[in-house]
Amino acid sequence: MASRKKKLKLFKRRVKIKARKRVEMAEKKKEKENVTPLVRKYWLQRYDLFSRYDEGIKMDEEGWFSVTPEEIAARQARWCAGAGVVIDAFAGVGGNAIQFAQLCHHVVAVDIDPKKVALASDNAKIYGVEDNIDFIVGDFFQLAPFLKGDVVFLAPPWGGPSYKAIENFTLDLLKPKDGHSLFQVAQAITPNIIMYLPRNVDVLQASALSWLSSPPLNVEIEENFVRGNSKGITIYFGDTLFT
Ligand code: MGP
Ligand code: SAH
């Protein structure tokens, strides 16, 4: 009887050790994938962000909380399917650039952070679209006068995950410059502009950017959901007739 009790104790201890090891391994894996406490919830949504995540997608902290979920990025790309050149002005880890590259002829992906550009380039290889994308490390505002394209996609920083504490997110809160200046810089390249904005954005103020053109640009506004949860607002300015 005593030995049965001992065996059971031993067995329970082994199970505990194994469980602890599993937790330790999972923690190490998360550390390798740059899953800080701030971005744990985004890691839990990793397959919504990149369906091919397990094939070696790489992220950094800002990438985790900023990347456009794949289903939304694919929808945004469908708006301009067949376009010649799409400029992704704030490319991040490549969530949008990869989807544009699948449906348009060429993508120019700009990011000021060289680390992001390296991650985006590796991620594009996983989707087999690296040859359709030119990656540029640089400040979009400085590069814009030299860029040519049929569509400009703007998903700038919203100021981190705390953006949602604001009741009415106005365009002056976008980084590194306000949305009005950003739109004007993009408009000098093409009237076909897509903006991906927070779900609490002042939609009236954002859609009024169309009046910066004469005649005013066509505007389409769409709220983007993943699994029934609102993620952001996309505003399409200009024309979509590329196919
Ligand atoms: P979220 O609101 O931080 O996450 O971002 P979630 O999972 O909706 O959390 P909840 O607690 O509010 O339910 C939602 C989506 O917005 C992200 O998946 C990104 O696509 C986008 N996003 C978030 N931020 C902070 C940024 C940003 O700074 N820039 C850009 N371009 N997109 C962002
Ligand atoms: N749509 C992207 C995420 C964009 S997040 C995706 O799906 O992956 C915003 C990005 O803007 C960040 O990666 C940040 O490095 C970049 N950024 C900030 N200021 C910039 C600037 N002046 N020019 C170009 N990129 C900038």
TrEMBL record:
It comes from the Eukaryota. GO terms for biological process: methylation. SUPFAM superfamilies: S-adenosyl-L-methionine-dependent methyltransferases. It is found in: Cytoplasm; Nucleus, Cajal body; Nucleus, Nucleolus. One of its GO terms (molecular function) is methyltransferase activity. The keyword Membrane does not apply. Catalyzes the 2 serial methylation steps for the conversion of the 7-monomethylguanosine (m(7)G) caps of snRNAs and snoRNAs to a 2,2,7-trimethylguanosine (m(2,2,7)G) cap structure. The enzyme is specific for guanine, and N7 methylation must precede N2 methylation. Hypermethylation of the m7G cap of U snRNAs leads to their concentration in nuclear foci, their colocalization with coilin and the formation of canonical Cajal bodies (CBs). Plays a role in transcriptional regulation. PANTHER family: S-ADENOSYLMETHIONINE-DEPENDENT METHYLTRANSFERASE RELATED, TRIMETHYLGUANOSINE SYNTHASE. May form homooligomers. Interacts with CREBBP/CBP, EED/WAIT1, EP300/P300, NCOA6/PRIP, PPARBP/PBP and SMN. Belongs to the methyltransferase superfamily. Trimethylguanosine synthase family. This is Trimethylguanosine synthase. It comes from Forsythia ovata.
